[in-house]
Write a structure and sequence with these properties.
By secondary structure, this protein is α/β, with parallel strands linked by helices. The chain has twelve helices and 19 strands. The strands form five sheets. Strands 3, 6, 7, 10, 11, 18 and 19 form a seven-stranded mixed β-sheet that branches. β4 and β5 form a beta hairpin. α4 packs across α10 and α7 packs parallel to α8. It is globular, with a radius of gyration of 20 Å.
Length: about 350
């Protein structure tokens, strides 16, 4: 099978590899589409995701969809050719965190696309049957690649707790940020500001529902939003960028008693925090760790509001061009929003 491997910083290759038959409880799937995620770009561009360095060669990709090939012993209910989205997190289901319902904090978590566990930029993968989510017959498989990032966004909403009529700021209008903008408007946010330095991404944020889109290099976005909000600040702030000063700008733009959620992953291992504004405003500060069984709701939202979310996917590239695909995303070229790598 074809495998897209990261073999050095900013260097990918397509190699041939074998795959065994599925083990008991597993399903072998044929991957047909995988979205490129921001954490994939951290691995590609920086050689690490925060404090977790890459170990080469490794296989990235954790926003997949495709078809069932065959089932291992003991698996029922999945026929060859069935269409599904694939959950990249494999939980133990017996640790204290799994028992408390916080599976995303599983003490024995395996996440496919980390150095020790290959991701989905490959033709075939063996997965636990529980990691497959059946798709509606009419859903295009490329749109199903948005289920995983949408689940992350929905998990962030658990902490942001948006209420109808509130105001919100989203830092970063990459795919996660754009999905966050759309989700906030669906929850009834009165006004959403998007803060994004790339012009075409600001335009996409407006198309997905943002009421205003600011360039952080064209004036101080904190001052602009405070002025626009009548010197009150925003009820909630979601930082999907975690770079360019956005972490402390998120603290600065929140109102007294507001909520700040960090969804983005900083490139730095240690990040300075403006503690005293955080303290004086008694802000609630939250951090997002991927998602926690929000995939089914993500699927429902994407299926019900396909027309709203479809413009997010702007590019498709075959796995043979995976190097060019990552180069394009890193450089923000050609108006790229979400790029999907296809394996057909």
């Amino acid at each position: 099978m074809r495998v897209g491997e990261l073999i050095a910083q900013r260097t990918l290759r397509v190699a041939e590899r074998e795959i065994p038959d599925p083990a008991p409880g597993e399903v072998q799937v044929r991957v047909t589409a995988v979205g490129i995620c921001g954490s994939d770009m951290h691995s590609f561009s920086e050689g690490a995701v925060g404090d977790t360095p890459c170990v080469y060669p490794m296989v990235l990709g954790h926003e997949p969809a495709g078809l069932v090939v065959k089932s291992g012993p003991g698996v029922t209910g999945w026929d060859a050719g069935a269409r599904a989205a694939f959950e990249p997190a494999i939980y133990c289901y017996h640790c204290e965190f799994c028992h408390s319902g916080r599976h995303n904090l599983c003490a024995n978590l395996r996440f496919l696309s980390m150095p020790s566990d290959p991701g989905f930029f490959r033709d075939y993968v063996n997965l636990p049957a529980a990691n497959l989510t059946p798709l509606p017959p009419a859903m295009d498989l490329k749109y199903a690649t948005m289920i995983e990032p949408m689940a992350v966004v929905l998990h962030s909403m658990q902490w942001a707790a948006p209420a109808t009529g509130e105001t919100a700021v989203v830092f970063g209008a990459g795919p996660i940020g754009l999905l966050t903008v759309a989700a906030l408007k669906l929850t009834g946010a009165k006004r959403v500001w998007a803060v994004e330095p790339v012009a075409h991404r600001r335009e996409m944020a407006l198309r997905l529902g943002a009421d205003a889109a600011l360039d952080p290099y064209d004036g101080d976005p904190v001052r602009a939003i405070w002025k626009d909000s009548g010197n009150r600040g925003a009820d909630l702030v979601i930082d999907c960028a975690a770079k360019g000063g956005s972490i402390n700008q998120s603290i600065g733009v929140a109102r007294h008693g507001g909520r700040v959620v960090f969804t983005g992953i900083p490139a730095e291992v240690q990040v300075p925090i403006d503690f005293h504004p955080l303290r004086r405003k008694e802000l609630a500060l939250y951090n997002v760790r991927r998602s926690n069984h929000e995939s089914e709701l993500a699927l429902e939202l994407l299926d019900e509001h396909t027309a709203r979310f479809a413009p997010l996917i702007t590019h498709e590239r075959p796995i043979e061009d995976i190097q060019k695909a990552f180069d394009l995303v890193e450089r923000y070229e050609d108006g790229v929003g979400k790029l999907v790598v296809t394996l057909s």
